[in-house]
Amino acid sequence: LSLSLSLLHSLVMAELPAMKMAADCMEHLVTALERHTPVADAATHSKHCRQRLDQMLLALGRPPRWTTVRVNTALQPDMGQAAQTLVERVERDWGSKPKVQPHAKVPDVLVIPCEGPQPLDPPPKEVVVDVGCGMAVLRGAQVFAPGVRGMSAGVVAGDPVAVVVDVDGKCQHGMLAFDGLRLCVGVGRAVQTRGDIFQQQQPRAGLAVQLTAPLFRTPPLNFAADDSLFFLQNLPSAVAAHVLHPQPGDQVLDMCAAPGGKALHIASLLRGTGRLVALERSPKRAAALAESVQLKKLHNVEVHCCDATKCLAAAAAPVASAAAAS
Fold it and tell me: Cα(197)–Cα(146) distance, rounded to whole angstroms?
């Protein structure tokens, strides 16, 4: 990983790469845009639609401007109190008080701004991570060992390092150098050495880099995975249950329920009344959904391991769970 410091600086200031898509998918989306976009000029219509799609893919390559957190209003209907609780929990883990505010139109959603891109001053030593890890860093995560693909020679614990994403997947396990598109997503301090990560017999685990200066500054919300009050949910998913507009006492069927964000939201909007029947054909995903139902303390949900296309032909297997038993 022998990029010069000047090249690293140019990478930091470069545009984030656009989301990539297969050629047939691109053509399908362009055709759809052409069909649904008003024609202002027939001669340039197709070109205009391609430019719109390029803009969309570029935007999808960036983290969202806001992190959205849905509140389980079945437990805490007071959004002001929920916002204060969220501030306290984030500050406890992040060490800094976040800006939390209610969403302007979705009544049970809180938003936290994502600030960036921030100016970076990358050191010469690098830790190369895969795209999944890089995306997580852009959303506030730290760098953990399973996401590390390569590392400069001589990295020891405490060294300042640049965290570089291998955008094209060209960096093989443990490589010192590779050819491919790269993007610096932050600066931090190494927690593990190169030997810790690449020369051990057991699977890689643990924190690899502690970020001190991420490209985009937004708090990690790891606690939400095990929290009964808060649920990390992207805004379109949070809107879906409000469009359905379930009323207390309603009975609702979710025919493809896992991982459960919308199902749990519907159950919350039912205010502990009615019944939500959640069908999921994957036993593993159904069991995970049943655990989420228990965690969120929702007692009006039944989880069944069942292929919804065949649910009338055979009895669905109930998932064993106190909160999800049928």
Answer: 9
Take residue 210 and report the two structure tokens written for it: 């502690």
Element (H, E) at 290: helix 283-295
Residue 161 and residue 122: Cα distance in Å, rounded?
7
Asked if residue 11 has pLDDT above 90, the reply is no
DSSP string, 164-228: EEETTS---TTBS---S-EEEEEEEEESS-HHHHHS-SSPP-SEEEEEEEESSB----GGGGG-S
Give the 3-state secondary structure of residue 21: coil
3-state secondary structure of 55: helix
Torsion angle defined by CA atoms of residues 224, 226, 227 and 232, in that order, rounded to the nearest 10 degrees: 30
103-129 residue pLDDT tens: 999 999 999 999 988 999 999 999 999
How many C-beta neighbours within 10 Å does residue 296 have? 23
pLDDT tens readout for residues 160-176: 999 999 988 899 999 99
How much is the pLDDT for 315? 58
CA dihedral 209, 213, 215, 220 (to 10 degrees): 70
Taking every pair of C-alpha atoms in the chain, what is the biggest distance, in angstroms? 65
Q: Name the phi and psi angles at 113, rounded to 5.
A: -70, 145
**Structure token pair of residue 204:** 């890689």
**Other Cβ atoms closer than 10 A to 251:** 11
From residue 311, give the alpha-carbon distance in Å to each of 118, 250, 255, 315, 316: 51, 20, 9, 7, 6
Among residues 233, 243, 229, 314, the alpha carbon closest in space to that of 279 is found at 314
Cβ contact 82:108 at 8 Å? no
pLDDT digits over 231-274, tens only? Answer: 999 999 999 999 999 999 999 999 999 999 999 999 999 998 99
Residue burial 21-34, b: 16+ Cβ < 10 Å; e: rest: eeeeeeeebbeebe
The C-alpha atoms of residue 290 and residue 326 are separated, in whole angstroms, by: 11
